[in-house]
Every structure is written in C-alpha cells, then in structure tokens.
Design a protein that fits this description.
By secondary structure, the chain is mainly α. It is built from eleven helices and three strands. The chain has a three-stranded antiparallel sheet.
Length: 307
C-alpha cells in the first residue's frame, strides 16, 4: 500500500492507514476492548493532527507531530496513560512502516521520548478487608436470593481464581468438572487474546453457591434477572455495591485479581507458578507482586520491637 495516496490529503491517508491497522488487529483476534482502546487513542491522534493537515504528508511527518502529541498527553494525564498512548502510536507507526511500498520508517519520529520513573503500587485488599467480604458472604447465605448468591459467587470467583472481569461472563456451570483427586472444580475460560485457560477452584470454597445454582437449575449465573448476560459495567456496579455493604473503602473488580496474586505471593508461592495462575505472558508483569510483598515484609521488620 502506498504511504501517501495522491487521491487523499494527509488526514485522508492517516485515516486510510488507521482503518487498515484496526482491520489487522481484528484479523489477529485481538479482543474488542483492545481494538476499542486502539481506536480511541488513534482518533485522538487524528484530532491532534488536524492542525498540521495543510503542511505535511505522512512521509514528512516528524517528531514535532508525534512527540508533540505524546508530550501533550503527558501534560494532561498520568505517566501510565502517556506510556499507553506511546505504545499504541508506536504499534500503529510500526505497522505503517512495515507495510508501505515506499519503505519509509515512521517510527524514527518517536525517538527521544522520555518517561518519568514511577514506583508501581498494587492496589489490593488487606486481610481485614477480605475478612469483611467473607463475613458479608456468610450473612447473605442466610437469605439465599438469586441476587445474593450471584453476588457471593462473583466475589469468590474473582478473589479466589484471579479471573478478569469479562472472563466470568457467559459462564455455564454445566461445563464445570469435579476432580475428585484434588477436590477441585475445573472449568475452561477464554481469556486475553482469545486464549483458552484451565481454572481451578476448591470445591469447599464455592460449594454453597454452586449447589444453590444447580438445585435451582440456574446454570448460567452471571446474568441479569431477565436472563441476559451481565455487562462489564453491571458487574462493576455489583462488586462496588458489595464492597460498600462490607464497608470496604475501595472500588473495582480488578482489585480482586490483584488481591488473589498478592495472597499467592504472601504464601510464598513460586513466582513462575504465580505467573501461570495469573496467565501473564511476561514474568516481569508478575514480579511486581513479589516486590510489593517484600516491601511489606521489610516494613514489618523495621517496626518489630517499636513501642
């Protein structure tokens, strides 16, 4: 594909490459959320480029445009957001560079962008906050309505298996397999990148909810009252409501996944096994949990013996 098609102006060619880039992402089975994220960032880049549309082409686009866009994002947002925008734009420009007939490398325009070094802190639930959640679960077991058992089921599922929010949607309990030798349930989910993964949960940890659903012939529990699959937003509100009832001053579903990983790290589970359990492609992503746990232990050691 030509880098600059003479039938289009700069913005037209930019849009042409953006559409081709997103189509490739779809063909590579990227998740809908990933594609939407790319689209949102590239739409912002397109909007930023409108101020240069009369003066440049893709071939002459330089760091004034690309670095200016990334630095503007850095001024308005956190450093993590700036890195996300940079990664997306670099991926986009790499795609153009590798597929244009003129063999022009657009990624050079990103050279020299710097990022502040951030100390990454993992948001997770403390032991006391987890105790509050499980106390509320026991309370809700005494009034076993569909809404109560569904909420308990989801909280347990996320905090005891580390599922991502969307990985519970569409779950069918008839596909769960009981493994007698380990006293666990095994079920398969389709995770990030459309990859299948085996998930295990101890029978005793989910038995109340599982038996209630099965006895009531509710095989797909992550649904609304009308039987429609819950959306990510609906699950988010459900979890936040549960937190509020348990007097846990935190929000979000992903914090339960972080808590699962932190619990594994605190138990001294090998980092490679935590990587497998979390289904991280890169072990460096997993290392942050061990680092955070080590920092906690170091702080405890410093305070031993203090009055």
């Amino acid at each position: 594909m030509r880098l600059d098609d003479p039938k289009y102006d700069f913005l037209g060619n930019l849009e042409r490459w953006q559409n081709a880039f997103l189509e490739e992402k779809k063909a590579n089975n990227c998740s809908n959320n990933t594609i939407l994220s790319y689209r949102r960032i590239l739409d912002n880049f397109y909007e930023y480029c409108t101020q240069f549309s009369d003066d440049i082409t893709l071939a002459t686009m330089n760091g004034v445009v690309t670095k200016g866009f990334i630095n503007l994002i850095g001024q308005k947002h956190a450093e993590g957001t700036k890195k996300t925008y940079f990664t997306c734009l670099k991926s986009f420009l790499t795609y153009i560079s590798e597929n244009n007939e003129d063999s022009i490398d657009l990624t050079k325009s990103l050279k020299g962008i710097r990022f502040k070094k951030e100390i990454q802190k993992i948001k997770h639930l403390t032991d006391a906050e987890q105790d509050s959640l499980f106390s509320l679960i026991e309370k809700k077991h005494k009034t076993p309505t569909f809404e109560n058992i569904r909420a308990c089921f989801l909280i347990k599922l996320y905090i005891l298996t580390g599922l991502r929010v969307s990985e519970a949607i569409g779950m069918d309990l008839r596909n769960w397999e009981y493994l007698e030798d380990t006293d666990c349930y095994l079920f398969v989910i389709v995770g990030k990148g459309n990859k299948e993964a085996n998930i295990y949960i101890a029978k005793e940890n989910i038995e109340f909810e599982y038996n209630w659903f099965m006895s009531n012939k509710i095989y797909t529990p992550v649904v609304t009252k009308n039987g429609r699959d819950m959306s990510r937003v609906e699950i988010f509100y459900l979890v936040n409501s549960f937190f509020k009832q348990a007097k846990v001053g935190k929000t979000g579903v992903h914090i339960l996944r972080h808590t699962y990983a932190m619990n594994l790290a605190s138990e001294g589970i090998d980092i490679a096994d935590i990587q497998t359990a979390m289904r991280h492609a890169n072990i460096l992503t997993t290392m942050i949990y061990r680092k955070t746990t080590q920092e906690k232990l170091a702080n405890i050691a410093k305070n031993v013996g203090r009055n």
